[in-house]
Amino acid sequence: MASMGNASFLPEQDMLSTILGELKRTVREYTTATTESSCPAVRQMFESLTADTLKLQGELYSLMKQQNMYSAGSYALKVDVDKQYKQAQQSVQKARDLIGQKNAAMGPFAHQPNVASHAANVPPLS
Prior knowledge:
Elements: E1 3-4, E2 7-8, H1 12-36, H2 40-66, H3 78-106
Antiparallel strand pairs: 1-2
């Protein structure tokens, strides 16, 4: 960090807000990588990285909130959250139904794995 004596380049709140924003972005990237990975070991690695980053983001948010450096947005009404949740559940169920229909329609032509499941070639991070 560039500093001149005791004066830092950016105020502490601005630096922490930037870091918090980067942690949020990183979680989104890790989540995308998790959903797109086909190798179980890679998927596990991104799941672990996501969890660790979420924990760090939560700790930084709590610290900033305690120091009055972060003001949370307005609260959402429970009815609105419940509505969004129900819509998400319906979307998931529709996707599952569609996948089931397509797989059933393919019958003997449905894709079968051509290789057996293999053990991870790197140990999971713990």
